[in-house]
Amino acid sequence: MKKYLVVLFLLVGATLGWAQGGMKKKKPLPSNYGRVTINNFVQQAGMPPVVFDHWVHRSKFTCRLCHVDIGFAMSAGATKIHAADNMNGIYCGTCHNGKMETGRIIFSSCAKEYTREEYKGCVRCHQLEPSAALSEEFTAFMQKMPSEKFGNGINWEKAEKEGKIKLTDYIEGISVPRAKMKIQNDSTLKGKLEGMPDIIFSHTKHTVWSGCELCHPDIFGIKKGGSTFSMAEIFEGKYCGACHSSVAFPLTDCRRCHSKSVGN
Question: Which ranges constitute the DSSP H helices of 91-177?
């Protein structure tokens, strides 16, 4: 019973958006959800930090493409990107090379020398202040997408299923060709609190965005039932919380996972 009370307290605290100090966290604007600030080396170069908006990229690419094939770490700042990496066609430079096209040519990232006019391209990523133009772009994009109450206010899963977004999952010369695998059926995970609906976990939904490699074996073990975890660990950013605490729909959307009716 004591264990249940502890987990319940953590669950309610997360649902209300409490910070670690007990104060309620400010809910981010939909356009800011999933925003990452990269500031490892830019100050030494005299540049503002890089502001990366996940919504811009997840509307065009799968998570696996960036985090497996290109090699971005799952934790903010852990990749430790240098401008030289980008200039050599690694990390951001894989796509931001002035040649790749996704409906339009993707602008180049980083250069040893640049003109005042070219600097306008730098501040598309290196930002001192939030971009008003990007905020307006998000609003226009959001209005075309199926809505939900949490995160970005966009139901990305439904948007992909309805064909409103078409995700690139392969880059020639970067991605490894993968044989199609039989997708496992949805599985049920037992809720640990009495009266809490069980979790319906869908491999189908996750395979579209993440494939197998993003989750296995680094986040979850390969063997079925081999990973045991608690809500407390998920709230700490482990297991499901690796994505569902900052980019994928947030943990406050309890019913998206705890969706099996009690008693069924």
Answer: 116-122, 132-142, 156-161
Helix (H) or strand (E) holding 36: strand 35-38
User: What pTM was estimated for this model as a whole?
Assistant: 0.84
Residue 252 inside a domain? The answer is no
Q: What is the mean pLDDT of residues 111-115?
A: 88
CB 150 within 8 A of CB 252: yes
Q: Are 181 and 212 in contact (CB under 8 A)?
A: yes
Could you check whether the bond before residue 28 is cis, i.e. omega within 30 degrees of 0?
A: no
Residues 6+ apart with CB under 8 A from 230: 7, 192
Of all residues in the chain, the percent with pLDDT exceeding 70 is 89
Cα(109)–Cα(119) distance, rounded to whole angstroms? 11
Supply the DSSP symbol for 136.
Answer: H
Question: 239 in a domain, yes or no?
Answer: no
Q: Is the pLDDT of residue 14 over 50?
A: no
Residue 104: give the domain boundaries. Answer: 30-142
Query: Could you read off the pLDDT of 158-205 as tens digits, one per residue?
Result: 999 999 999 999 999 999 988 888 878 888 888 877 778 999 999 999
Measure the CA dihedral 186/191/197/202, to 10°: -20
CA distance 261 to 170: 38
Interior angle at CA 70, CA 42 and CA 96, nearest 5: 55
Specify the amino acid at residue 94. Answer: T
User: How far apart (Å, rounded) are the C-alpha atoms in residues 43 and 51?
Assistant: 14
Say if 174 falls within a structural domain: no
Strand 187-189, strand 50-53: pairing: unpaired
For the chain, the average pLDDT equals 86
Residue % of the chain over a pLDDT of 90: 60
